[in-house]
Amino acid sequence: MDFNEAKAKLEKYGQVHVLRYYDELSDEQKNNLIAEIERVDFEPIIMKPAESLAGDIQPMSAMKISEIEEKRTELEAAGLELIRAGKTAALLLAGGQGSRLGVEGPKGAVNVGITRDLYIFECLINNLTDVVKKAGTVIPLFIMTSEKNDAETREFFAAHDYFGYDSSNIFFFIQEMAPATDFEGNVYLEAKDHIALSPNGNGGWFKSMLGAGLDKVIADRGIEWINIFAVDNVLQRMMDPAFIGATAGAGCEVGAKVISKAYPEEKVGVLCYRDGRPSIVEYYDLNEEMMYMKDENGDLAYNSGVILNYLFRIDALMRIAGNDMPLHKAVKKISYLDDKGEPVKPEENNGYKYETLVLDMIEMMNGCFAFEVDRNKEFAPIKNLHGKDSLDSAREMLAAYGVEL
Ligand code: UTP
Hints:
This protein is α/β, with parallel strands linked by helices. About 30% of the residues lie in helices and about 20% in strands. The protein has a seven-stranded mixed beta sheet with strand order 4-3-2-9-13-10-18, with helices on both faces. Strands 1-11-12 form a three-stranded antiparallel beta sheet. Strands 5-8 form a two-stranded antiparallel ribbon. It starts with a helix and ends with a helix. The site of uridine 5'-triphosphate (UTP) has 22 residues, from loops.
């Protein structure tokens, strides 16, 4: 692509300002910028964002903790059988930027320890290792990073000897990026020769995995189920044999770990049916009637809060791999160059990132099995430094769980 072609592409999307420092750049920088313009997909900026939930919404109930406890022995046995047969794998979603937490580098490298070092990645590997030991077998672990944190993530794992995990069973891959804009849809520049790009959400994980050629690992190893989980829940119980056994036994294409809402207004997405298909209604789409509705037992009807721990069947993922995903505009803090060409790190939200979300994959699945877990034992998300869902609250929960900090 030459300068004129790059300009024509930008004109198509109303983004010619991206070239405003072009004349100041060295030849190398000019080439970099043109190459970036060629590479970047500006389509998300002009795409119509996903609409809030329409259709006939009905509650979805979960397998309750009490029922799980009654059946734990058989559910675990079924799950362990699949794990030991090599039919399962774990996938850590670690491509996000953690802008609310506001720390430099990968979120998983944050130290939650107080008197000793204990990193988020370490907590997750420890939990996964519990299952490896119980099953007495290896479990492949895929780790999705982004261009922003890939090198640092790999270096961090290597520097800590993969926290004792067998590194030949860890597979890193990089997710795709999308341009970030101001509230009017103008692409930000991060440097005079560089567009502000951000990871394109957690919904593209399977596509990126295929793009990285990891379907070969899936095929070679005969993997049939994949358990994806978020980086920021330090009490995350991934590859839980009972969850795997229960989901596989339920005949659904996806299983979701859920927590009962702590109170009706809690800001958590809940599993539901939408026109008969499994779906997730975001907390901001839940109207008052749904929020306070009770089921026949007097519990909240819309009570199955999702915690970003899903078990997908590979054949279903393959079927939907080519599907278009709805696009979401996420309001975020985006570092940018101001009018004087000076870099700015905003304190407040200043624009949009364009994301696809894993929750939209749920609706494409034939059947979703909801599996209730104890929020005090399995849900300690770190989104912020202080307050709700924070480093502080996660430390308290880890300590209450008996983890030495
Ligand atoms: P969040 O929705 O909390 O987003 O991610 P985030 O980018 O990490 O944090 P904020 O919103 O900027 O503060 C939930 C999970 O999805 C992963 C995150 O790493 C986390 O595990 N994720 C998110 C990705 O892997 N890629 C993305 O593009 C976004």
